[in-house]
Amino acid sequence: MDCLQEWPEPVVPVQSLSESGAPAIPDRYIKPPSDRPSFDSATDENILGIPVIDLGRLSEGALECRATMEAISDACREWGFFQVVNHGISHEVMEKIQEVWRGFFHLPMEAKKAYANSPTTYEGYGSRVGVQKDAILDWGDYYFLQYLPPSVKNHNKWPGLPTPIRGSIEEYGSEMVKLCEILMRVLSVSLGLDVEYLHKAFGGDDAGACLRVNYYPKCPQPDLTLGISAHSDPGGLTVLLADDQVKGLQVRKGDAWITVHPVPHAFIIMIGDQIQVLSNAMYKSVEHRVVVNAAEERLSLAFFYNPKSDLPLGPAPQLVTSNRPPLYQSMTYNEYRLYIRKNGPRGKTQVESLKDM
Question: Can you give the pTM of this predicted structure?
Fold first, then answer.
C-alpha cells in the first residue's frame, strides 16, 4: 500500500476553480473526445424503460411479493439498477441529510480543507480518485467516510460542521443499512439462493458500509468534462440519493448513455461488481457516469454496502453448472478495490478482466 500514501501532486478543490469565474476549465479536466458527454436529447427518451419499483408491495401478499421480486430480478439482469419508492425511509430524513451536506460544501474552503483526505483510506474531503501522476481529473469534489463495521467508524474523520451533521449521518446510515439488508435478502431469493446467502457471503454483521457525498460545482464548459468518469461500483450494492431537481447521472445501456430522471424521494439502487461476481454474472453491475452543467451545482449521496474486506468472494456454487462454469476466481474485496484506488474509474475493465484469469 506504500504507493497510496500521498497524492502525486497538490489537490485543487474543483469548487475553487468554479468560483474563480474563469471562462474555461484547466486542461487537466478536458476528457478525450470519445469520453466527452453527449447531451443529445434522444438519450432521455429511454427513461420510460428504467424500472421504478414499489418496495411496499413486498409485504402486500404472496402475488404482489412475487411480482415485485420478479421485477427486481429483471432489472438486475437487464439494467443493473432500478429506482425504489415506498422504501420505508421518511422524506424528512432524506431532506435533512441533503440539507446538512449542502451546508458543509458551502462552508469556507479552509474549514473543508481541515478534513483533506489522502489515498491511504480516502476518508475525508477530496477531489480526485486514483494516484496516477498527470491523470485527467473529474469535475467534482466529495467527502468519503466509513460507516461499518463499527471498528472502522471514526467520528473524528467526519465533518463537525454544520453542527447537526454527525447526528444526521448516524441516522441516515442506520436507515441505509436496514434498506440494504432488505435488498440483499430480496436479491438472494430472486437468484434462487437461501434468503440469507448474500448477507452471509458479505460477512454477516461484519459487512462494510461507507458514504460518499458528491458535490459537482457549476462548470463553464460541461461538454468537455465529466463529474465522475464512467465506472461500475466495485462493492456490492449502492444506494444513491440523487438530486431530483438537477439531472446528472447517466447509465450505459448497450452502446447508449441514458440520462436518469430521479423520481422525487426515491432511491436509485445500483448493482456493484461483487454482486455480479457472486451471481456468476446473472446480475450485472451497472456502468455509469455523471455529467455536469453550467447553470447549477448538484449534490448526491452514494451509500455503499460492501463485503467484509478480507473475505474471499467468488460465484455462488448453486449458480455454477456444466453449462455455466464459474466466470470468476475468488478474491477479497481489499484486493479488488485496490485497482480503482490506484487507477481511478475505468469503465467495467476491472470486473471484465477477471473473466480472463
Answer: 0.94
